[in-house]
Amino acid sequence: MLHSFHIFNRKGDLLFYKEWARAPRSAKAMADDHKLMFGFLFSLKQLVNKMAPRGSGGGLHACSTSTYKLHYFETASGLRFVLCTGLAAGDLRETLRRLYADIYVETLTKNPLHRLDEPITCKSFEQAVDAFFASLQQGQG
Amino acid sequence: MAYRPAREGNLLSLYINNRAGGLIFHRDFSPNAAKLDTNEQMQLASTFSGLALIMGQLAPSRPSSGMQLLEADGFLLQSFDSPTGIKFFLTAEPDAKGLDLVLREVYTYYADYVLKNPFYEMDMPIQKGGKFCQKLDRMVAQVQDRR
């Protein structure tokens, strides 16, 4: 079960957002949630880096509460992909990496009209992402 | 009866936070654990309390608990909140299993050897080297043996 999907750039601007079956919220509440999410991940990443045992970097990739699981993937350029799912989801590191490599890079990085650090409006990206998540949800049953 | 889970992956450190998010107990179980001075430990522990709470607020459906499990490439962190708001959290190597059960065990020791001590004041640091610490070390040694 999927709840929400965010893409942030390294400055914390929200580039892309999608949610499934969530209670409707006002635009302001939603914007506040996005800021809180980025701030949360930013601090969590620092915490993880400090808490990591000797000889290993941080490498945060998932965390969960009693009701949902948050999957995190960061690219070398500082893009952050955040996917919130139900607790049944396993390790989605590879899934998020594929989303980046097969969809983001193919439809946006290789697209000459795409401007970095601006909210994503590219139709072919949206369609590919929708198809990707639809197949993911089917796979999970 | 001590629980003896089958596991791989060493335990690294245990933190206990009071209701206000202040660190009241910390112990490292492995030489691999992150080298932190007391100040850093306190800072990290209270940051974690705050972040765990925020993650609950970000939940798509409420009510939700705070963060209970964190997975990173280098380690795992499992957290357990007692009904009275004391937060126990444990870091371990990434392939560790059954951390929640270890935390339950720690909670029992806390209830038996810290809370039942008439000289212990709620929310104050837990004395190192006391009965709680001894029990804890023994349990952890057993757990590490079973890798």
From TrEMBL, chain A:
Coiled coil: none annotated. The keyword Ubl conjugation does not apply. GO terms for cellular component: endoplasmic reticulum; Golgi apparatus; TRAPP complex. InterPro entries: Longin-like_dom_sf, TRAPPC. One of its GO terms (biological process) is endoplasmic reticulum to Golgi vesicle-mediated transport. Its main location: endoplasmic reticulum. SMART domains: Sybindin (SM01399). It is found in: Endoplasmic reticulum; Golgi apparatus, cis-Golgi network. It comes from the Eukaryota. Keywords: Endoplasmic reticulum, ER-Golgi transport, Golgi apparatus, Transport. SUPFAM superfamilies: SNARE-like. Pfam families: Sybindin. Part of the multisubunit transport protein particle (TRAPP) complex. Belongs to the TRAPP small subunits family. BET5 subfamily. This is Trafficking protein particle complex subunit. It comes from Emiliania huxleyi (strain CCMP1516).
Automatic annotation (TrEMBL), chain B:
One of its GO terms (cellular component) is endoplasmic reticulum. Keywords: Endoplasmic reticulum, ER-Golgi transport, Golgi apparatus, Transport. The keyword Endoplasmic reticulum applies. The keyword Oxidoreductase does not apply. It is found in: Endoplasmic reticulum; Golgi apparatus, cis-Golgi network; Golgi apparatus. GO terms for biological process: endoplasmic reticulum to Golgi vesicle-mediated transport. Belongs to the TRAPP small subunits family. TRAPPC4 subfamily. This is Trafficking protein particle complex subunit. It comes from Emiliania huxleyi (strain CCMP1516). The lineage of its organism: Eukaryota, Haptista, Haptophyta, Prymnesiophyceae, Isochrysidales.
